[in-house]
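User: quick one, sequence for these tokens?
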């Protein structure tokens, strides 16, 4: 096997490894999680003294600059944290595959005919 072929095979295998690490597409959400302390309004509650109740929000800036904040119930927080991480991991994998494809192009290791898209 020629060096050229070995290098192409190595890079193609790298893409497959990256693709296998991509999180499930249906478990992705773009946004940032943050916590605020709020007061419930009850005069006898501890929050009236300044401590506040912790509330977690998912914040997303939409096209046009509008920001949406959604409260995240405590029981859903682990799932939403995973979804936010999955979004980051998805884009990281996309950048890594893009880098491999640039290497394939730069080194002229691409086939002249594109492969058939894989079945979904």
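Assistant:
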């Amino acid at each position: 096997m020629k060096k050229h072929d070995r290098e192409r095979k190595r890079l193609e295998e790298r893409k497959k490894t990256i693709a296998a690490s991509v999180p499930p597409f249906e478990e992705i959400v773009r946004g940032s999680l943050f916590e605020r302390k709020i007061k419930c309004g009850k005069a006898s509650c501890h929050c009236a003294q300044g401590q506040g109740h912790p509330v977690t929000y998912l914040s997303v800036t939409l096209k046009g600059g509008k920001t949406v904040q959604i409260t995240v119930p405590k029981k859903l927080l682990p799932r939403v944290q995973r979804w936010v991480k999955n979004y980051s991991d998805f884009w990281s994998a996309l950048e890594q595959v893009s880098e491999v494809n640039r290497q394939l192009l730069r080194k002229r290791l691409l086939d002249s005919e594109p492969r058939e898209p894989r079945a979904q």
